[in-house]
């Protein structure tokens, strides 16, 4: 089992990798467009391309972790991400820039939260839960740290230099951490559990479809709020500086929820945390739409629910399906949320253009309530299985 220090190091890997992928786009879009003249929509859409490829590859990545263990997969994914960042820095035209993001998508499929949790869950079974929470706590301030750091780097070494800096961190910091902190080979599983033969596609397990829908609606909400929160706050008359300050509450509230889960929630079944997460996100978005004067409370509730969701995404499938199937299930469960995330920014843009920000906010509340309903359905299924 990784030590607390090892889990903190694994959390650092996610700060670096998310900072050099998901959170990099928002910082470099302006400088890239200004320096190259490429269309802004395509520069922003490059991230959607990477997320799409990552989602398509996730089930295959899960089977590789199940067969070979997490260490080789995550090290390889990290090095592919580093290669993508180098190609991005060298891109002399838009086609090469998009190709670099496609390579990034290949690496993201094998190096971010889902494959890391799959590797830990397969290696350590039920005892992996606290490790997942500690990793999520350590990486919880990724956006809070990476946006200012990336902005500083862009100002001093340009957007291409920033890509190279993240590539160096991935290759020389993240890959060695994965090599040292993750166990070699695949874990032994109980003798009564037969591992599927290589090349044989494992069947979907009971409840997997509705659980995937639950995770997908939650992922869509996360992506939509990341894109539209500032605009939604400003539409209620909140000044830009205040809106940015309020948005910054998401990071601390995410980490706070994960700390509470580690301190008090380890004995609770993850299904209870799923319900709390879905309810907190729904209540936060309802407050944001109906009571903008309580925006601070709404964002704290949303952030806490979203922070807990990251942990539940790793711990609930482990509790439901067990150690032997875990890596493959995580791979299959990762695809629909990633595809939803890839489509969300474009869908939000069109919805806001056609219907306005208020209608979009209502749609987000409806999706949050749907997510809560799906979570209740999962809980009922867990209760029936328990009986």
UniProtKB/TrEMBL annotation:
InterPro entries: MFS, MFS_dom, MFS_trans_sf, Proton-linked_MCT. It comes from the Bacteria. Keywords: Membrane, Transmembrane, Transmembrane helix. Residues 1-383 form the Major facilitator superfamily (MFS) profile domain. The chain crosses the membrane at residues 7-29, 41-61, 73-92, 98-123, 135-159, 165-189, 210-232, 272-299, 359-379. PANTHER family: BLL3089 PROTEIN, MONOCARBOXYLATE TRANSPORTER. This is MFS transporter.
